[in-house]
Structure formats: C-alpha cells, structure tokens
Amino acid sequence: AEKYGLPAVVNLSLGGHVGPHDGTSILEETITSMTGNGRLVVASAGNDGNREIHIGYNVSVTSGVVLDIPSFFGLGGSAILEVWYGRDDEIEFLIGVLDESYGEVITSTGWIPPGIELKANLQKDNVHYGDVFVDTTVTDYPSSGKKYVYIEFSNSKGTNPFVIIQRPSQNDRDGGFIHGWMNSVTGRFERTNEVRDVLISGKTEKVSFKSGDSLYTVMVPSTAKNVLSVGSYVSRVSWEYDDGEVYEESLTVGIRSSFSGIGPAINPLNGIKPLITAPGQWVISSMPRGMGAPSYMISPDGLHYALDGTSVSAPHLTAGIAILLQKNPNLGPEEIEGIICNSAKRDEFTGEGINEMWGCGKFDISSAYERVQKVEREKKPPEFVSASRDGEGIVIKTKGLSRVELRYNSKIWTDMSYAERHYIKDGGEISGKIYLLLESPDGGINEVEADIIENGCGCSEGGNGGFVPFLMIYLLFFIKKGGKRWKSLQNGLKV
C-alpha cells in the first residue's frame, strides 16, 4: 500500500490475554505505531465474554481468589495467570491449595514479595496437588512502570482448588488495585464474595475472598490505542446441511453473542472497547480445503460452512472500512471511530448509548458511508489571515479554528491545538517566506506560502478583515478541500 500510495486496513482475527491490556505491551505499541491516516487496524474483541477469567479489586486488606483448574482425564490441568498493579504499590502473594471447606490452606508457597522468582511443588503428607512457578521480578514494566506477577500452574489433579492470596506489604500498608487474567482452556475464577477465617501456616487470618468476572475480557491486541475492536451478535440461527437437512439453534437473531469479549478499556484513552459489534454467530463462509468441520456445519455444496466467533465478526468491519476508504483514503483511526460510533445501529438489544457489552451498537455500513459523504461535503478549510513576529516567536492568525504546521529552511514547528491564534515559540530565526499547513477540525486543508510581517499586524484578533498597514504578499494560496490527511512537511511542501 505504501509503495503504490494506497490506503490499507488490516484484519487481525486473533488475540489472547498476555499483557497489561492497557496498550503498553510491545505488541500493542508496535501495532499502534503503524496506524494513522489511511492506515487502519481491526481486531477481534475475543470469545471470553462468558468466562470468569478476570479479577479486578483493591487489595487494601488480605484478599483472595479461588481458581478452578479442571484435570483432563486425570492427567492434570494447567493455567497461566498474569496480575498487574501500580508502580507505587507493593503487594505480597501467596499461592496455595485449599481444603474443601475453604477453611485451611493445606500447603503453599509462603508469602512472596516483589522481586522474587520461585518454583514450588505443592504437596503434603505424600499427596501431590500440583506445581507452581511464580515470577514477581518485573517491578517496572516498560512504558507504564507497572508491577507484574506471572504465575503458572501445572499438573493440577483437580481434587482441591488453588487459591491466590494477596496482602499489602509492610512497606505499603495501603496496597493497591490489581487486574489479572487467566490463560486456560477451561479454567476460571470462582464467584465467592465473602470474608472467611482461614488457617494459613498455622495462623488464622481473615481473608476477603473476591469473585472472578468476565469484565475487561477484550483481548490483546484489540485493547491497543487506534485499534478498532469488534464484538459479535447473532445473525443466523439455522442453515441447510447434508442435502437439505436443516440445523437450528435456540438463539434469537440480533442478541449479543454470549462469548463476545466485554469491556471497558483499562485505559480509556485507547478508545471504546469493544467499539462495535458485527455479525459473528453464525456466518456461512468459504471452507478451507481439508477443513475437518462437523457435518452439521458444512453446506450441501461442500464448499461452505457455518462458523462463529469474533474472528468472524471482525472481517465485517474490515470490509466496511475498506469501502469507506474508497470514499476518503485519508481517514484516520479517530475519524473512523467517530464515524462508526455515530452511525451505529441501536435497537432493543443494544440499548441506548455506549456500553461495555455492545460498544456503540451494531455496525451499519450504509449509515457510515452516508456520514463520510456528509463530512466530505461539509469540510471548510480555515482561512489564513496573517503571520507576524512577536518577540522571539511567530504569531499565526487564521479565520476559523485550525491546527498549524510551519516550515522554514527544512525545520518544522507545530501547534496541534484548534485555535484562531497560534504562537510558535523559539522562532527567532524565522524571517521572510514561510510555508504553512492549516487543518480545520473537520479535516479541511489549506496550504499557504506567505511572508512574515516584521512590525505587527493591524488585523482584528479573529482575522475578520481589519486594516493591514504593512505590505504582505501571498505568493501562493491553495485551498484543498476533501479528506487530505494532516501530514508532515519533512519532505517539503509541494506547491
């Protein structure tokens, strides 16, 4: 796309729950860095919206959460848990095995402070309950500075539940808020909101047990800034298979898919998560050669099959955005998010407004396309009024709100605020001819080449015409309507 000067939208029907879910992981930041005007990324919200794989609560007292990790055919189950909390907080963790009454920790790792890596074989009286690996050495995660705890469970026999107990350290009596996600095929956190007396290492302690939930289950990298996150709703409940036989599901067309990943975003600045929903349960699509699908999913022609998931719903939005980019190839992530959200369909299932289940509602390509057309028609580029010296800086005045980018001798100054008066600091070396790029909030573009007025300007503050007593020559004045992107002038302004 870059080579041929074309826009691009990429679909990511993938994801997981490794990372802080706040846009600061290496994967998230890398994807975000690739987005921009005409460079868009769509990702699946994930299929864990009906599983209790998340925990989120304040650890101000000794708190605990119980894990259910089923054993597969007696071979032992496994799970990975990641817990994230603030850089200024300090929390200790204990991982152990509970008795059936939740009244005693049978065996445990003992209390583990930040900065420790530990392997433990959890057993007692010749009974092996499972193995655990704990790593609390990451105390300053790049980009966010958060602390990170990695816990791996293996060889769980499923006879007794695991428990993770936390408490504020001696150095931080206030504790802090934690978020955690379990990566497991069938594991989950139990729902247990109560305070119990628990015997831990021969000492009875009050433990405030917390429940797991399915909030914040939008997957990474759908959580990244500028990535458009897509959930799923039921679009089909029956289809033909096996020479005319009809398969039916007891679902209602239009309801949200129970598995669709749930928000909100950990970091609200990363956008609405999920942003929108699209058809994802069930969708008839082409079947890959050699695909071992159950017979009820395969269409009579043997070339198509029914499938579900947010991996299916995401391509609906991706294809829709491709259509919008045909109309305006310079749409950026924030513009697209606004267009999609403001044109979304809302009904008796989605409710009014934005929420963590549906995002903005259901994707409506027709309304979105109409909105792009309307924005294109209404774009009004800002008018240039004057450029004058003020001390060691330059004052740029416009008629109409704008952002300003000024180029002089291959150097660039920018003021990204939307205003009618811009002060370019440290511009003492600027004199004579300058190049300006002005952009209005709706994307209207004005490219200007002008001379600086050295002795001030008699124009009115808003640029509405006042008398200009000094000669100012406009060598070039281009108004470029449409969706031209706000771009850097590093390579020179073509005039």
Overview of this protein structure:
- It is built from four helices and 27 strands.
- The chain has 495 residues and is mostly beta strands.
- The protein folds into three domains: 8-48 and 227-375, Peptidase S8/S53 domain (Rossmann fold, 3-Layer(aba) Sandwich), CATH 3.40.50.200; 54-210, Jelly Rolls, CATH 2.60.120; 383-480, Immunoglobulin-like, CATH 2.60.40.
- The strands form six sheets. Strands 4, 6, 7, 11, 13, 14 and 15 form a seven-stranded mixed beta sheet that branches. A six-stranded antiparallel beta sheet has the order 3-12-5-10-9-8, with no helix packed on it. Strands 22, 23, 24, 25, 26 and 27 form a six-stranded antiparallel beta sheet that branches.
- Helix 2 (310-327) packs parallel to helix 4.
- Mean pLDDT is 86; it is low at 456-495.
Task: Present the secondary structure layout.
Layout lengths: L7 E5 L13 H8 L5 E6 L9 E6 L3 E6 L8 E9 L5 E8 L6 E4 L8 E8 L2 E12 L8 E10 L5 E7 L7 E8 L4 E2 L4 E7 L2 E8 L16 E8 L3 E4 L3 E4 L27 E6 L1 E4 L17 E4 L2 H18 L5 H10 L22 H14 L4 E8 L2 E16 L2 E14 L8 E7 L5 E7 L22 E7 L15
Helix pairs in contact: 2-4
What overall geometry do the principal axes of the alpha carbons give? flat
Give the second-level CATH assignment, the architecture of the largest domain: 3-Layer(aba) Sandwich
Q: Distance between termini? A: 25 Å
As a percent range, the share of strand residues is 35-45%
Largest sheet: 7 strands, mixed
Query: Could you tell me the mean pLDDT?
Result: 86
List key phrases describing it.
495 residues; mainly beta; Rossmann fold; Jelly Rolls; Immunoglobulin-like; 3 domains; seven-stranded mixed β-sheet; six-stranded antiparallel β-sheet; 4 helices; 27 strands; flat
